[in-house]
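Side project, low priority. Logging it here so it doesn't get lost.
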Amino acid sequence: MAKERQTSRDYAHPYRPWPRRLYDAVARGGLGRVTAPELIERARRETGLQRLACEVEEPLSVLLESLRDEARLNATGRLITLTDTRANLRTNLYAAAWVDAKPELAEAPLGQPVVITGLPRSGTTLLQRMLARLPGARALATWEALDPVPPPTWTRPADPSDDPRVGRARKAAAFVGWLSPDLFAAHPMEAEAPEEEAMLQSRVFRSGVAETSYHVPSYARWLEAQDAGPSYRWLALALRLLQHQRVGEGWVLKSPHHLGDLDALMDALPGTTIIQLHRDPAVTVPSFCSLVAHGHGISSDHVDPLEIGRHWSRRFERMLKRAMAHREARGEAHVVDVHYDELVADPVATARRLCERLQRPWSDEAEVRLRAWLGHNPQHAHGVHRYAAEDFGLEPEALRERFAFYSERFDL
C-alpha cells in the first residue's frame, strides 16, 4: 500500500513546481504604485458600467498599501492579487447593474438562513457539507463564491453545472492544488462543493480572508476597527443575487470569520439561526496557523510562523469574546451549540438532531444520502494535515490558559 501523503511543516520553504519557480525569477510588474481610484476607473472602462453596489475605495486603498509595504509578494503573488482585485471590482459593478435593472432583487426574501460558525478547524466545513446534502438546502458553491455575479447579459442555463463559471472554478481548484498541495490537503477546494461566504465579503475588501492569504497586519488592524455593517449588507445583497441565479431559499452558510461580527450578521440577515461549533483551542489554533502558513507560502517567499501564531491567537481570543458578548446581549434562542467530539463520533445523529431543532425535514432517505456521502468523502482524502503548536511559538497549556474563559463556558 502506498504511503499516505503528509503535509510539510517546513513553512519557510514552500513547495514550488519548477515552472512557477521560473516565472517568479523572470516576471516583472504587478501592483506597482497603482491606486484604488485607478483600478476602479479601469474596471469601469472595461465593463462600461459606472455605479458600484458597495463603495470600496477606502478598504482597497488600505489593502493595497499593506500588500506593497508588508506582504513581500513574489511575482506569482503579485499576479494573483492584481487578477483577483480586478475581478472583484467587476463583480461589484455587475451587482449594481443587476439591481438597477431589477430593483426587486435588492429586497428579495432570504428565508431563515442557517449560519455555521466556530473556531476554524472545529468541524464547520464537515457540518456545512453534510447539511447541504439534505433536501431543501441551498449552500454557496465554490464556483459561486469565486464568481458570484455574472455580467448583466448572463442568462440562466438549464443545468447550473453548464454555467461557464463552474468550468473556471474547476481550473482554479486544479491550479491551487498544483501551486500548493499542502494547502489543498488541509483545505480541499472543489468547484461544486460548498464554500464559505467570507469569500463573498472579500469581493468588497472587507473580510478576514486577506489575513489568511497574506501578511497584512496594518490592513488587519484597520479592518478590526471598522463597522462590519457594510460587509454584511453586501453579503445579504450577494446572496439575493445568487438566489436569483440559482433558485433556493434554504441557505446553509458557514464561516469562522463571523465569530467576531455576529451582531452585524444578525442585523443584515434577520431570522438567522447560528450553529456554533466548539473544539479545544489548543488544537484548533495551531491547526489554523498551519493552514495560514501554507496560504502565505503561495504568494510570498517569506513566511513567518511565529508572527502567524501571535496574530491569530490574539485574533481568536478577541473573536470568541465578542461572540460571547453577543450571546449575552441578544440571548441564545437563535444559537445552537455543537461539540466537535459529538459531530465526529456520530455525524448522522448530529445532523438529525439539528434538523429537529431547525425544523428542517428529515427522512430515511436523507439518512441514506448522508451515510453515502460520508462514505465517499473520508477525512485525509488529499493527505494528512500535520502541524504542531511549537511551530508557531505556541504551547498547548498556554493556549488552554489563554482560552480558559471560552473552554470553561462550553465544557471543553
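Brief comment: The mean pLDDT is 93.
Revisit when time allows.
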